[in-house]
């Protein structure tokens, strides 16, 4: 039970802090910059891993959980519970943001700046890279409790900074699902659910091939 509570809390905290920074940016034009939002996402991910990782692994990302399950690095029996907790954490975070900022229309929703397919390809590549970092971080010593949160958080920061204006830099189905459902802006949700999941799975497939050959 502690694992499940930790995964729910980690997902809620990450999405609340991350999308909350986007809401704050919308409401304080010129005061909270794109750099600040990107740093907030990186911090939210890193802090959640640092706080809750010891109990649940703080995956917080259905694409990551599905990929780890396919790699047999996550128990099959915990796949559905983890996915439900991650999506539920995102919905609760967005619901709380809607209560705190009822005038905000989007609540940090993932929306393409260009075409839907452009965002699809970019999100696929972003999640592919993020999943690669997650897998490589497994090589760090278990005692490196600061290194893993820092590396993964820094990756999210960089990807959010460079791709945020184009796609919203989701890299996470649960991160996009909550704001879309609560705000009602579901028109491009399929892009972020499918591309991120495929990106993580492809990265895992390449990881298996690389491990077998080298």
What do you see in this structure?
The radius of gyration is 16 Å and the shape is globular. Helix 1 (2-27) packs antiparallel against helix 2 (34-56). Helices cover 74% and strands 0% of the residues. The protein starts with a helix and ends with a helix. The chain has one domain (2-213): Glycerol uptake facilitator protein. The chain contains 8 helices and no strands. The protein is mainly α and 214 residues long.
Regarding quaternary structure, how should these chains be classified? single chain
Q: What is the CATH topology?
A: Glycerol uptake facilitator protein
Q: What count of helical segments does DSSP give?
A: 8
Give me the count of strands.
Answer: 0
Biggest sheet: strands, sense, closure? none
Uncertain segments are none
Helix content: over 70%
Structural class: mainly alpha
- CATH homologous superfamily placement: Glycerol uptake facilitator protein
Query: Mean of the pLDDT scores?
Result: 95
What best-fitting shape do the alpha-carbon axes yield? Answer: globular
Instruction: Report the top-level CATH class.
Output: Mainly Alpha
Reading the helices and strands in chain order gives: HHHHHHHH
Total individual domains? 1
Distance between the termini: 38 Å
């Amino acid at each position: 039970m502690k694992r499940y509570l930790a995964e729910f809390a980690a997902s809620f905290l990450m999405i609340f802090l991350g999308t909350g920074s986007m809401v704050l940016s919308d409401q304080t034009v010129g005061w909270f910059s794109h750099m600040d939002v990107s740093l907030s996402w990186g911090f939210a991910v890193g802090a959640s891993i640092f706080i809750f990782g010891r109990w649940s692994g703080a995956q917080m990302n259905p694409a990551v959980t599905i990929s780890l399950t396919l790699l047999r690095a996550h128990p099959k029996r915990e796949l559905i519970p983890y996915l439900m907790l991650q999506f539920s954490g995102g919905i609760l975070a967005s619901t709380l943001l809607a209560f705190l900022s009822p005038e905000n229309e989007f609540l940090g929703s993932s929306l393409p700046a260009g075409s839907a397919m452009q965002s699809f390809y970019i999100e696929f590549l972003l999640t592919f890279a993020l999943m690669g970092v997650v897998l490589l971080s497994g090589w760090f010593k278990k005692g490196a409790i600061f290194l893993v949160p820092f590396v993964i958080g820094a990756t999210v920061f960089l990807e959010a900074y460079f791709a945020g204006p184009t796609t919203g830099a989701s890299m996470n189905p649960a991160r996009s699902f909550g704001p879309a459902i609560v705000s009602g802006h579901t028109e491009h949700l399929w892009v972020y659910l499918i591309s991120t999941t495929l990106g993580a799975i492809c990265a895992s497939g390449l990881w298996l091939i690389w491990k077998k050959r080298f």
